[in-house]
């Protein structure tokens, strides 16, 4: 089993990162380099979180071996026996041989740092560039990142000059490397505490509110009103951009040198706009004959960038609107089925996607009713209580982890109790649950936050390349300080525990923070206490209230603006529900019409064909005879009349009446 656990986790984490990236990204439309870079960043960060518990258990076993080797001892197979006290150091099932973990952490850490500070910022500018060639995009990316990279080089150069001039400093390369790592971790810890303070409160509260059907439905109505506004704005913006593209396409003809750039822009436009613009491009005029002002390549690159952004935003709002409609319809169905006497879940609309037969066999309407109406609310309440308990433990440990005598951090107490009995399974499970909960609080906040329309992780393959790369940057910058914070909470970091013991392989790669005493003994110790203030602010929704005062509509129960948006969203959902009901009723009537009159139409059509054959044979035999005064009607006209009758849809004069509401009565269905 030596190293097998490491290999299994490496494979599992890869497929986990691939699954999440497939949910948010679009493998078919986005550039392969963007997909590969984002996948690598996510994969390395998730890998650090999953492998660190194995590093902890291996370090505890190595400490035991060092303690045994310092006394007379005898070796026996997979464990070492201490002669005087007969103490045994069992080798953990997930033991990783010496020399593997330092190399592994060094490769993972420096690769992630290269991604977050050099490659991903460059690829962000490259992805957002509107250039028409690879060289043009690289040039634009270098210009945009010149200030970004120049600032870091200036700070680093000033620091090197200060160290070289000051005789009190005698820094070696390892110490200089540690200072760079400390600077990166300090920036990451600053952002980590902000995100952690929000996630520790919001995650348990969101699960608790998930048990309230009325709350979820009102919030869905609120989202519908906001999303409709954003959807209308995206459609209007797309129309304006397409109008500019049309003018440019009409002014720049086929023999113009910039026509290739215009064709590239047209390929990024939606299909209906391409067909509309292609109708007026049949002429072939010489652009030199008319003295018109043509746009430059720089302005076309800017237009190209706007087209990519507007098309992506329009597509995203359309998909999100359909998803929100399905969610609203489902929540309304849950509210209706709660008082059902048959205890079978009845859907207002059938699912548009084909369902799995295995799921249909086990997840019957009765099972769905018990889960949605009875079990799911209680499950969410219990889960919210468990998550709230974890949040309280994290907040307490963040405020007391610097105390070593006595040990006040609860995570350190749990690990030290298990270390005495060398229960490696318990140690790994406790470490994994702790760091997994911290990661969920931080990473879920990264997935939830939205910076206007520049950064937004939207599910169902609707996230743009810029947001994917930006999320990879955040993960790579947040994960190392998150792991160091976890090691501090469990007192596995010698800087916190103040013990002369063997450090973990991850800590040895980070280097000793004693080079910067004000960071190791000050910022790393006291700054995490700020999480208490952030948790209190999140509990009372101070950030939401501030955004609401600034004009950004947020969901608040005691706000008049929220009530107005809820009413507006409710009316929008009701309107869409009427539209879908009329569509389904029309399809049902058309299906019934075909089933009822289909055989009769087939027989009528066969008789018409037989009549045609008779008339054609009669005309051939009597071709020399004069035409009679009265003739039979043409069979083709008869067939056309039958097809029109078959496609006709009966009118329902009661569906759109003022007094009858299809939402209130089920007689129409």
Descriptive tags:
669 residues; mainly alpha; three-stranded antiparallel sheet; two-stranded antiparallel sheet; 21 helices; 5 strands; globular; disordered C terminus; coiled coil; LMBR1-like_membr_prot; membrane
The low-pLDDT segments are 72-86, 617-637, 639-669
- What general form does the structure show? globular
Number of strands: 5
Rg: 34 Å
State the major sheet. 3 strands, antiparallel
Termini Cα gap: 62 Å
Strand order within the widest beta sheet: 1-2-3
Going by helix content, strand content and strand pairing, the class is: mainly alpha
Mean pLDDT: 81
What is the fold's blueprint, element by element?
Elements: H1 4-24, H2 32-69, E1 73-76, E2 79-82, E3 88-90, H3 100-128, H4 134-165, H5 173-209, H6 213-251, H7 259-268, H8 271-278, H9 297-337, H10 357-362, H11 365-400, H12 410-421, H13 424-448, E4 450-451, E5 455-456, H14 465-489, H15 494-497, H16 505-510, H17 517-526, H18 531-539, H19 542-549, H20 560-621, H21 635-647
Antiparallel strand pairs: 1-2, 2-3, 4-5
Overview of the molecule:
- The chain contains 21 helices and 5 strands.
- The longest helix has 62 residues.
- The C terminus is likely disordered.
- It is mainly alpha-helical and 669 residues long.
- The chain is globular, with a radius of gyration of 34 Å.
- A hairpin with a 5-residue loop joins strand 2 and strand 3.
- The chain has a domain of 398 residues.
- One of its GO terms (cellular component) is membrane.
- It is a multi-pass membrane protein.
- It is found in: Membrane.
């Amino acid at each position: 089993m030596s190293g097998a656990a490491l290999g299994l986790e490496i494979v599992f984490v890869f497929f986990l990162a691939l699954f999440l990236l497939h949910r948010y990204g679009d493998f078919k439309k986005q550039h392969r380099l963007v997909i590969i870079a984002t996948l690598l960043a996510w994969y390395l960060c998730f890998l650090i979180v999953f492998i660190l518990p194995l590093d902890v258990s291996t370090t505890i076993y190595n400490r035991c071996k060092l303690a045994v080797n310092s006394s007379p001892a005898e070796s026996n197979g997979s464990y070492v026996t201490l002669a005087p006290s007969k103490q045994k150091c069992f080798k953990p099932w997930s033991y990783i041989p010496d020399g593997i973990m330092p190399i592994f952490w060094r490769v993972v850490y420096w690769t992630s740092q290269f991604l977050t500070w050099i490659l991903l910022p460059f690829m962000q500018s490259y992805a957002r560039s509107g250039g028409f060639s690879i060289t043009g995009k690289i040039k634009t990316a270098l210009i945009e990142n010149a200030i970004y990279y120049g600032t870091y080089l200036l700070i680093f150069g000033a620091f090197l000059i200060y160290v070289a001039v000051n005789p009190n400093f005698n820094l070696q390369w390892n110490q200089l490397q540690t200072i760079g790592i400390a600077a990166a971790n300090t920036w990451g810890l600053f952002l980590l505490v902000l995100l952690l303070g929000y996630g520790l409160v919001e995650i348990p509260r969101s699960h608790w509110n998930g048990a309230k059907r009325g709350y979820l439905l009102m919030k869905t109505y609120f989202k519908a009103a906001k999303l409709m506004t954003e959807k209308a704005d995206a459609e209007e913006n797309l129309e304006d951009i397409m109008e500019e593209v049309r003018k440019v396409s009409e002014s720049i003809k086929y023999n113009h040198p910039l026509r290739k750039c215009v064709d590239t822009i047209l390929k990024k436009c939606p299909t209906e706009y391409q067909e509309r613009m292609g109708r007026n491009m049949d002429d072939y005029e010489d652009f030199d004959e008319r003295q018109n002002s043509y746009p430059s390549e720089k302005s076309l690159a800017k237009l190209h960038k706007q087209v990519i952004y507007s098309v992506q935003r329009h597509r995203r709002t359309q998909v999100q609107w359909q998803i929100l409609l399905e969610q609203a319809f489902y929540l309304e169905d849950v509210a209706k089925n709660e008082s059902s006497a048959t205890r079978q879940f009845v859907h207002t609309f059938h699912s548009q996607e084909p369902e799995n037969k295995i799921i249909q066999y086990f997840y019957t309407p009765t099972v769905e009713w018990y889960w949605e109406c009875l079990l799911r609310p209680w499950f969410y309440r219990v889960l919210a209580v468990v998550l709230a308990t974890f949040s309280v433990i994290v907040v307490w440990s963040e405020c007391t982890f610097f105390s070593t005598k006595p040990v006040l951090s609860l995570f350190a107490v749990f690990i030290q109790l298990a270390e005495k009995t060398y229960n490696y399974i318990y140690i790994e499970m406790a470490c994994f649950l702790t760091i997994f909960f911290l990661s969920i609080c931080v990473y879920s906040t990264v997935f939830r936050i939205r910076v206007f329309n520049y950064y937004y992780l939207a599910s169902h393959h609707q996230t743009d390349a810029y947001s994917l790369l930006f999320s990879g940057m955040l993960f790579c910058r947040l994960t190392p300080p998150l792991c160091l914070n976890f090691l501090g909470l469990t007192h596995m970091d010698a800087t916190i525990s103040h013990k002369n013991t063997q450090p973990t392989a991850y800590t040895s790669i980070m280097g000793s923070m004693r080079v910067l005493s004000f960071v190791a003994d000050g910022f790393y110790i006291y700054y995490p206490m700020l999480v208490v203030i952030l948790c209190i602010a999140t509990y009372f929704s101070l950030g939401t209230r501030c955004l609401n005062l600034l004009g950004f509509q947020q969901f608040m129960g005691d706000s008049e603006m929220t009530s107005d948006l809820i009413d507006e969203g409710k009316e929008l959902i009701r309107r869409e529900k009427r539209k879908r009901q009329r569509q389904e009723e029309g399809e049902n009537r058309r299906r019934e019409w075909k089933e009822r009159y289909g055989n009769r139409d087939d027989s009528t059509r066969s008789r018409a064909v037989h009549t045609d054959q008779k008339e054609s044979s009669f005309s051939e035999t009597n071709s020399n005879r004069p035409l009679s005064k009265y003739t039979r009607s043409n069979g083709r006209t008869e067939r056309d009349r039958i097809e029109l009758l078959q496609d006709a849809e009966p009118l329902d004069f009661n569906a759109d009446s003022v007094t009858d509401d299809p939402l209130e009565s089920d007689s129409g269905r």
